[in-house]
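Problem statement: downstream parser choked on a complex file, so we are re-checking the raw output for the magnesium ion run. The parser issue turned out to be on our end (a line-ending mismatch), but while we're here, posting the original submission so the record is complete.
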Amino acid sequence: MDNKDYQYYLKLFFMGASRVGKTSIKEMFCKGNMPSDYLETLGVEYDSKVLKFDDKGAKLIVWDSSGGKRQEMFTAQYWKGTHGALLVYAVNDRDSFNALEKYIKEAADKKIPIVYLVGNKIDESKRVVETSEGQKFADDHQMKFFEISAQDGSAIENIFAELTREIVKNQASKDD
Ligand SMILES: Nc1nc2c(ncn2[C@@H]2O[C@H](COP(=O)(O)OP(=O)(O)O)[C@@H](O)[C@H]2O)c(=O)[nH]1
Ligand SMILES: [Mg+2]
């Protein structure tokens, strides 16, 4: 795609515990399908996609990370210039929900301007984190909240579109 197709170039990050579905969401968004096998993310990797919204376009560089211990080895350069992040937990994994506070602190340390909370794996029958708990956590931290399954490509696209709009709107108001 050539440069005329987008006016914005945004760097986004995934945060959250291991195995909550960060890589799956990224692959679904950027490639249109979930990985067929589980492959642990080692270190960091990124992918990109041009998202059309309203009459505009944004190239989103989506950074994925292993989460957990390895994440702590990341140097500041990985995070530099990050416009926003999706903080993910899995609704069938209480530990991943309990870990959120830690990532909120990390996002603040790294000065990530916008973070959305995403409860993934709603297709799983063994839910242990209720929607109301996710909503309350998001409200307490002034975040937008979504629940999805990584298999639901259009729900994922909607989250990225909303995040992109909000980032672009904030940039515009800064330029005023
Ligand atoms: N049922 C279900 N499984 C999922 C979903 N998202 C991811 N998974 C599975 O959860 C495991 C971990 O996913 P992955 O994307 O690698 O998680 P990551 O460690 O956060 O990157 C894999 O086996 C995925 O297939 C989902 O929405 N529903
Ligand atoms: Mg991964």
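For whoever reads this later: The mean pLDDT is 90.
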